[in-house]
């Protein structure tokens, strides 16, 4: 009914006016969907790998504040794995993981740090730096995924991804606080 002023220019010979346009955009959105799924598999692998790696970081940490922060992030990480499974479910896909070389590398680096550091404040400082690199990787990935989900109109996925993104940002802030806390000062002292 009536005049679609904004789309009147695309009304064409075929008579199916928006079709041409949406043909192109649905091709684009299927490519975006593929990218979304790929990154989802990547972060699913990453979260599961982190779940396995965190206990060693907890074991090597000395400061009780750091131990608590890592323990609560382990609990969060377990929830985040479940949340990712819900994201897969929301797009009717079976949850599957694809090796994330970036997270694999970050975890390997954290293991190297823990192998070579002296027990105590120095080791804590190293664990915090490794943890923050992990958080920043996750923040970047979840930020992208949430944006893709928004563009694709996947409402449920948006809110699931948003919830995890908030947790990752909070975990990163917590680590920043701890780094500024006594830990780095102690590390400097231990060196002197
Ligand atoms: Fe996470």
Can you characterise this structure?
There is one protein chain. Helix content is 81%, strand content 0%. It has one domain (29-191): Ferritin. It is built from 5 helices and no strands. Helix 2 runs antiparallel to helix 5 (155-191). It is elongated and about 65 Å long. The N and C termini lie far apart (80 Å). It is mainly alpha-helical. The structure holds fe (ii) ion. The site of fe (ii) ion has 5 residues, from helix 2.
Short description:
The chain has 192 residues and is an all-alpha fold. The chain has helices at 17-60, 64-90, 101-116, 121-151, 155-191.
Major β-sheet profile:
none
Associated small molecules:
fe (ii) ion
How widely separated are the two ends?
80 Å
The CATH fourth-level homologous superfamily? Ferritin, core subunit, four-helix bundle
What is the annotated CATH architecture? Up-down Bundle
User: How confident overall, as mean pLDDT?
Assistant: 87
* Order of helical and strand elements: HHHHH
The top-level CATH class is Mainly Alpha
Helix count equals 5
Q: Could you name the CATH topology?
A: Ferritin
| Number of structural units classed as domains | 1
Counting DSSP E segments of at least 2 residues, the number of strands comes to 0
Structural class based on helices, strands and sheet pairing? mainly alpha
